[in-house]
């Protein structure tokens, strides 16, 4: 999130695309509705469904799932054709604009209508609203990402904001409302398979950096891997761990024998029936969770251990909010029912694996020393200025911060921003409330765009050479260099701002009024991606095979996160004949994720006791289906669920929607008897993910759980 939830109060218009914040981020509505009421800011909601957020919108745009990139490129095209782009901003701070604009011309309003189902006149009308009401705050959530072109879609969102000149401005920005509590922190620590913490990647220099932070010998680290190639190779993703066992798609490493799930709902994986098959085959499954979770019930072999851990109320430590704020949590009660804190379980595991002398030798006081260690290493994102003492001071004085600006007025935190939003470069820095804002000095929380990709580039697409640094005279106030500059290095010989643990490099940059990471342009062209400029590609399983010639998918990608991944070989033009409905999935306010927590809460279970599928009344009438009756939903991958019909105009005639919070029943068989006695959730049902299709983003491997095809029939 470039801005913050609170900063949305300054928006002059808002666009939510693939976000149902009214159900999934209800607290944010406080700020969204403030902007609507006080600034008279229009709210545009782009969603295949008329959601609870759409009910608060001024403009609802119904879109066919998986076609957002075409819509956004269409908006960009209309904006440029009418000369509504922010020319000064683009000239000063954007790279690759020409190449991108050329691609956008293909997406005329009529072509956008053909692809997305949004009337051409609406495309032009929405573009005009955005042009006339700047700055716009743009929010996307999972409706934008869970597609095989999710990374192109999200890049298109960012480019739209660049074209309108809405980046680095209060009331503007790209504001991705994050998922779980502390998921921003989890992402920053990279609890993922493709990078070391803080986005350092897996290069040799990255390993050496973290070895220095952990005070672990680099050669010892190398000796832990079969070879150096494996050390630098991305691992399996959570979305496809089960391929390591089932190998329906060929894998490129040893088969998996054991699985440790630490706070994971299991039924959150697409093609869930394949997950169950893998769970049964594994030699060892360990679950660390406050609840037994579905894995415990659904696994039929006796290979499973449950390690009950405490919840957030029974532990303390630092967490990172969606607005990049670091916050301190105090323990409310001691762990109940003999559960242990996550820290204790982790320590016990590390001790038994024999690594405690390596990784725990500098951790004396838990959790303060952990926060300090991750801050010491995470220089890339400026986690070093937020010491436990400062974070606790913010918690104790939260009432001194202004709701509009997030800045403290007087008191012990005077002038600082709440939670010292990262990057917070030094222990004197106030935090960065808005990323890429050049109206303030870097020492006061301003920043330019980051220089990461060299200083000049010749585009492969056009052969044009362009300087990647910001234009002359474009910089934060007080900058010693009046214009673009490269990242800082060699202040301490042999290091750069990311690897200099003394932090002298960072300090010297700030003293000179400059950003440690340089002052560059934001890129519209990513020359290392398969689509250098975002383009539309039809969902793998699409209801529009007539578009495959022009907007087909990628070639299959072998050895992608260690798994051969299918694209073209999945895009079968005949599939729609047998599976004519588009399936999309998501959330409801009453439940959370896989539902282990909320279906174990009797009040929430009472509010939403049933698994259901949303079906349009016309579709239901044509099939003779009544509200509350059971229907079968079947996927092309062999998954099949029997669920209750919720007949509603929220969805159109070609689309169905299922929440993914249920579990306990799999293709008609119920497993709730397998929970430890007294631990089965109050309510259970089929999992939507038994019907989600094959499909993974070409860059991130996120599962395509928001588009796909299915068959619907009366049960
Ligand atoms: N109550 C509750 N709150 C939650 C969660 C929860 O489970 N329950 N989960 C948390 C987590 S982990 C996350 S990641 C966030 C997610 O928050 P959201 O992303 O808002 O949640 P979803 O309901 O999955 O999807 C949002 C919307 O995307 C729409 N959509 C589907 N396909 C498309 C498409 O192709 N294009 C567009 N434009 N829209 C599409 C869906 O109809 C849905 O209304 O919520 C967090 N908050
Ligand atoms: N079809 C479909 N599938 C989806 C999605 C979708 O929109 N549609 N969304 C995807 C997204 S965005 C997400 S984030 C995933 C979510 O999927 P999961 O993360 O698998 O789902 P949750 O149920 O939120 O799982 C969190 C688990 O953590 C446990 N937990 C809570 N607090 C603690 C704690 O302090 N310590 C430990 N150790 N455990 C704790 C909970 O009891 C729960 O079992 O689902 C993904 N899957
Ligand atoms: Mo999420």
Explained architecture:
The protein is an alpha/beta fold. Among the domains are: 6-176, Dimethylsulfoxide Reductase, domain 2, CATH 3.40.228; 574-714, Barwin-like endoglucanases. Helix content is 27%, strand content 14%. The strands form eight sheets. Strands 17-19-18-24-16-20 form a six-stranded mixed β-sheet. Helix 3 (68-81) packs antiparallel against helix 6. The site of one ligand MGD has 30 residues, from helix 1, strand 2, helix 8 and strand 16. One ligand MGD binds next to helix 1, strand 2, helix 8 and strand 16.
Strand order of the largest sheet: 17-19-18-24-16-20
Radius of gyration: 25 Å
Strand residues, percent: 5-15%
Outline the biggest β-sheet.
6 strands, mixed
Helix content: 25-40%
Helix tally equals 25
Bound molecules: ligand MGD, molybdenum atom
CATH topology of one domain: Dimethylsulfoxide Reductase, domain 2
Question: So what's the overall shape?
Answer: globular
N-C termini distance: 44 Å
What number is the mean pLDDT?
Answer: 97
Label the CATH architecture of one domain.
3-Layer(aba) Sandwich
Low-confidence stretches: none
Q: What is the number of E strands?
A: 24
Which class of one domain in CATH terms? Alpha Beta
**CATH H-level superfamily title of one domain:** Dimethylsulfoxide Reductase, domain 2
Q: What would you call the structural class?
A: alpha/beta
């Amino acid at each position: 999130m470039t801005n913050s939830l609170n900063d949305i109060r300054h928006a002059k218009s808002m666009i939510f695309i693939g976000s149902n914040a009214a159900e999934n981020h209800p607290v944010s509505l406080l700020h969204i509705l403030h902007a609507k009421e006080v600034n008279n800011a229009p709210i545009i909601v782009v969603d295949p469904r008329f959601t609870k957020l759409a009910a608060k919108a001024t403009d609802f745009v119904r879109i066919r799932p998986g076609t957002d990139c075409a819509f956004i490129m269409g908006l960009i095209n209309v904006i440029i054709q009418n000369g509504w782009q922010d020319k000064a901003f683009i000239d000063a701070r954007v790279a690759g604009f020409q190449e991108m604009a050329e691609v956008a011309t293909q997406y005329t309003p009529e072509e956008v209508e053909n692809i997305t189902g949004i009337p051409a006149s609406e495309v032009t009308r929405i573009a005009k609203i955005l042009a006339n009401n700047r700055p716009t705050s743009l929010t996307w959530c999972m409706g934008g990402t869970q597609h095989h072109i999710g990374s192109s879609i999200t890049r298109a969102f960012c480019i739209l904001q660049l074209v309108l000149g809405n980046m680095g401005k209060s009331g503007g920005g790209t504001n991705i409302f994050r998922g779980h509590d502390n998921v921003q922190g989890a992402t920053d620590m990279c609890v993922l398979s493709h990078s070391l913490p803080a986005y350092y990647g897996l290069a040799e220099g990255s390993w050496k950096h973290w070895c220095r932070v952990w005070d672990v010998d680099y050669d010892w680290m190398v000796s832990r891997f079969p070879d150096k190639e494996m050390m630098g190779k991305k691992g399996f993703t959570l979305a496809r761990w089960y391929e390591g066992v089932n190998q329906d798609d060929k894998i490129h490493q040893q088969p998996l024998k054991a699985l440790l799930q630490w706070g994971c709902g299991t039924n959150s994986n697409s093609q869930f029936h394949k997950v169950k098959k893998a769970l049964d085959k594994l030699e060892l499954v360990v679950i660390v969770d406050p609840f037994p979770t579905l894995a415990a019930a659904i696994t039929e072999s006796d290979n499973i251990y449950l390690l009950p851990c405490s919840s957030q109320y029974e532990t303390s430590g630092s967490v990172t909010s969606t607005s990049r704020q670091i916050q301190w949590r105090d323990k409310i009660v001691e762990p109940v029912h003999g559960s242990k804190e996550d820290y204790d379980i982790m320590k016990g595991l590390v001790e038994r694996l024999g690594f405690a002398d390596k990784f725990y030798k500098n951790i004396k006081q838990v959790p303060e020393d952990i926060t300090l260690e991750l801050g010491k290493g995470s220089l890339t994102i400026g986690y070093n200025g937020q010491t436990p003492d400062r974070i606790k001071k913010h918690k104790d004085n939260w009432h001194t911060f202004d709701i509009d600006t997030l800045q403290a007025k007087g008191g012990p935190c005077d002038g600082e921003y709440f939670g010292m939003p990262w990057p917070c470069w030094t222990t004197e820095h106030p935090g960065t409330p808005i990323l890429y804002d050049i109206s303030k000095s870097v020492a006061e929380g301003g920043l330019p765009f980051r220089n990461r990709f060299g200083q000049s580039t010749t585009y492969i697409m056009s052969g044009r050479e362009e300087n990647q640094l910001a234009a002359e005279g474009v910089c934060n106030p007080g900058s010693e260099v009046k214009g673009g500059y490269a990242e800082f290095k060699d202040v301490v010989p042999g290091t750069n701002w990311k690897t200099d643990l003394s932090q002298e490099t960072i300090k010297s940059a700030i003293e000179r009024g400059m950003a440690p990471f340089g002052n560059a342009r934001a890129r519209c062209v990513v020359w290392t991606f398969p689509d250098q400029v975002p383009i539309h590609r039809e969902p793998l399983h699409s209801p529009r095979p007539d578009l495959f010639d022009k907007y087909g998918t990628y070639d299959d990608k072998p050895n992608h996160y260690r798994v051969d991944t299918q694209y073209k070989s999945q895009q079968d033009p005949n599939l729609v004949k047998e599976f004519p409905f588009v399936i999309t999935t998501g959330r409801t306010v009453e439940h959370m994720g896989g539902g282990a927590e909320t279906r174990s809460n009797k009040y929430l279970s009472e509010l939403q006791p049933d698994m259901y599928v949303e079906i349009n009344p016309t579709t239901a009438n044509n099939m003779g289906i009544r509200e509350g009756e059971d229907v079968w939903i079947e996927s092309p991958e062999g998954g099949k669920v029997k669920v209750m019909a919720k007949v509603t105009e929220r969805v159109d005639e070609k689309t169905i929607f299922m929440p993914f919070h249920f579990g306990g029943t799999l293709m008609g068989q119920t497993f709730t008897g397998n929970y430890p006695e007294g631990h089965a959730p109050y309510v259970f049902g089929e999992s939507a993910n038994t019907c989600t299709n094959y499909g993974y983003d070409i860059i991130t491997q996120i599962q395509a759980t928001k588009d796909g095809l299915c068959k619907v029939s009366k049960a």
